[in-house]
Amino acid sequence: MNDNQFSILGLKETIVNAIEDLGFTKPSQIQAESIPVTLGGFDLIGQAQTGTGKTAAYGCPIINNITKSEGIKALILAPTRELAVQVNEELKRLSKYEKTVVLPVYGGESIDRQIKALKRNNVDIVVGTPGRVLDLTKRKILQLEKVEFLVLDEADEMLNMGFIEDIETIISHTPEERQTLLFSATMPQAIAKLAKNYMKSDAKHVAIKKNSLTVSKIEQNYFMINNKHRLEALCRLLDLDSPTSAIIFCRTKRGVDELVEELQSKGYIVEGMHGDMTQVHRLTTLNKFKSGSLNLLIATDVAARGIDVEGITHVINYDLPQDVESYVHRIGRTGRADKSGTAYSLVTPKDFSMLKQIQKVTKSTITQKPVPTAEEIHGKKFNGMLSEIKETIDKGDFSKFMPSAIELNENYDPISVIAALIKVKFENESTFEYSSNNLDAPAKKEDVRLFFSVGKRDGLTPKVLINYIKDTTRINGSTIGQIDLMENFSFVTVEESVSAKILNNCPGGNINKKRVNVEIANKRKR
Ligand code: ADP
Ligand code: MG
């Protein structure tokens, strides 16, 4: 049996293997709670934030239970073309060993191509936007009478976009005994009504509280550096934290080889892992890492995909990955099974937009930290050494060394002896010659646009808003830029350096009795 944690949810091995290939090792909360329910045949109402893995939450059980015969067996409705494309891609990957045929249909693309694809009669799952699905249904090209699964993905969004009637008409073309799965970030009245009218009365509810993103237990930090300081910054982090179990990611195989060599030449015990190494070599390395005899592993994204190691304390992005998905995969290696973890990213000013993109998509905060200074590292090591000495004194099992101590005491002043011993021990531990300068590179000043859930209708004025922000965060007013007040909400542009503070401190209060919520403004067009 596969030891991937998805296998206990009751999914077929083929699907668990596909999940494994995607690099998922642990189900997210919504997946863990909803997959067994859906596999059991129940209707499901799932509520969870973006980025919590809802696609696989419904995709896996559908692919698992779908009947393989002619006709569309599952229809997934999503609000936008982009989302339909994304869902289509994820379902394709999840069903790769099942050979399920998935077809995306959406407006803005030639309907003829979609008609041709449907007429091949081999499609099992259709993912589409309500408008195009309805169009194809009315033309009798898309036949829904064999549908076993209907998914309303991002239902609240679809209702906001005015798709309710289209959706109701589409539903009326599907069989009543279908299984209906509805996912929504929020549960307004209209959604409850939709659920009541079109779902079975024994439908199960799964609600995941906010902030249970797959990455939420992980403390995420970044260090702004210039490229030439990358290696030293990494060494300083390793020296400060002395991680018990860290994966360091490089973008390329060559990058892995080079970093392994550089670190080894500086006396660090590290090994690399990438696709050009033999399977035996990779397994040996992985086993050392798993057993704890190797603390630092350097790997490419691909090589790390299958790695399932308990208790990884640090994920370090020596290079930032090229896409957000890889970032989530990488840092998902730590903070597993309710343990907390640390993720560090070395970021150059050039990488900054990628970093912002990652924060936006994962809706998480990655906090900038200064690269540890030589004094900081020495101070920490020194304190560690002192407590080690004190502990040894408390334990008292050093009788073997007493004769030497007595001898030294006869010939020298004891204070000098102690100081000399400390010097020898400490110099042994500090192998790295730090360049004494501060390694932090100034970030390009970038502004962040924030969404506030309070608007003119709530009596908001720029002054009220600025005062509220200043009161809750104590930031300098000069970091606040343009303010756009709308009826129901507003946008505030602020300096990047204060955005995390605002996002952390401003939500939850009230302005003129209206509850304040703040998010990074979404530039994505829907
Ligand atoms: P949602 O629909 O809730 O917004 P998605 O289904 O789009 O979330 O998933 C967000 C990202 O997380 C995707 O890149 C997906 O591949 C990834 N993902 C999903 N489940 C897991 C998991 N169990 N472990 C790691 N990554 C996951
Ligand atoms: Mg989704």
Automatic annotation (TrEMBL):
Annotated DEAD-box RNA helicase Q domain residues: 4-32
Pfam families per record: DbpA, DEAD, Helicase_C
Entry GO terms, CC: cytosol; ribosome
Keywords: ATP-binding, Helicase, Hydrolase, Nucleotide-binding
InterPro entries the record matches: DbpA/CsdA_RNA-bd_dom (IPR005580), DEAD/DEAH_box_helicase_dom (IPR011545), DEAD/DEAH_RhlB (IPR044742), DEAD_box_RNA_helicases (IPR050547), Helicase_ATP-bd (IPR014001), Helicase_C-like (IPR001650), Nucleotide-bd_a/b_plait_sf (IPR012677), P-loop_NTPase (IPR027417)
Superkingdom in the source lineage: Bacteria
Helicase C-terminal domain location: 217-377
GO molecular-function terms, A-Z: ATP binding; hydrolase activity; RNA helicase activity; RNA strand annealing activity
Motif Q motif boundaries: 4-32
Annotated SMART domains: DEXDc, HELICc
Segments forming domain Helicase ATP-binding: 35-205
SUPFAM superfamilies: P-loop containing nucleoside triphosphate hydrolases
Biological process (GO), any one: response to cold
Record-stated family: Belongs to the DEAD box helicase family.
Name listed for the protein in its UniProt record: ATP-dependent RNA helicase DeaD
Organism: Clostridium uliginosum
